[in-house]
Fold this sequence. Notes:
The protein has helices at residues 2-19, 51-57, 103-112, 118-137, 151-156, 161-173, 196-202, 231-242; strands at residues 94-100, 143-146, 182-183, 208-209, 219-227, 247-255. The protein has 263 residues and is an alpha/beta fold. The protein folds into two domains: 1-57, no CATH class; 62-261, Rossmann fold (3-Layer(aba) Sandwich). The strands form two sheets. It has a four-stranded parallel β-sheet, sandwiched between helices. The structure holds zinc ion (2 copies). The site of one zinc ion has 9 residues, from loops.
Amino acid sequence: MATLWNSWQRLTRDAVNFVYPRSCVRCDTPLSESDAGFASNDEAFVSRFCRDCHRMLCCSIALPCLRCGAPVGPHLNTENGCRHCRRDQFQFDRVFALGIYEDALRACCLRVKQGSGGPLTAGLTDLLWTAYREEWSGLGIDLVVPIPHSWFQRAARRHLPPVTMSHVLARRLKVPQELHILSKPRHTPAQTSLTPAGRRTNLRNAFRIDGGARLDGLTILLTDDILTTGTTADRATRVLKDAGAKRIHVVVIARGVGQSSRR
Ligand SMILES: [Zn+2]
Ligand SMILES: [Zn+2]
């Protein structure tokens, strides 16, 4: 009974915290009034993190590849990609990431998939928005679309990070979102369970546009929690572009590079 009561208290606190954060969504430290909004001059912005967590999690990729979002060295022209993506035929235009999938951000990415991961996902998405809002304002974004999940994933998980990210970014950018236009009609094995070659074939024909809708000329922000090989975002991008979308920009919490980020 005590466990049930603790779970209920946790759920209630998370629901309140989602709307009006009273404690840091990462470490539970109570937020003082001076913390609220400290991360931005925008009066509508209320930080969901304490100062220490904010400092640790705010955008940490100083020099991202203009194509895949991976960190690159200075003075490198990445218009045609970097060593992480040059051999891929990615159809998306750019990847925006908060940081590398390691350390504290990796721990956050594991937590956002849990049932209570909504407030943390919203907080991390706010950090993305503060990092890239000026660039995004110049991209002419028309629509926000989350990477879809199969019926099996939707039934098994209480929280889907790409959907929460889409809610937050659509509200911040004041553009519409489409939660159902892109769908995943068949269940596929988790990308983490496959070899790199297996991941590329696993998602072939996995996505589709529902109802034959057209997206002619639209610039779309595609949300997902992690990008590693880029296969998921690329497969979804191809379907969106086949429906007429002009540009697809991918937004992720973390960019996975190297062995520690297999996904
Ligand atoms: Zn904190
Ligand atoms: Zn790259």
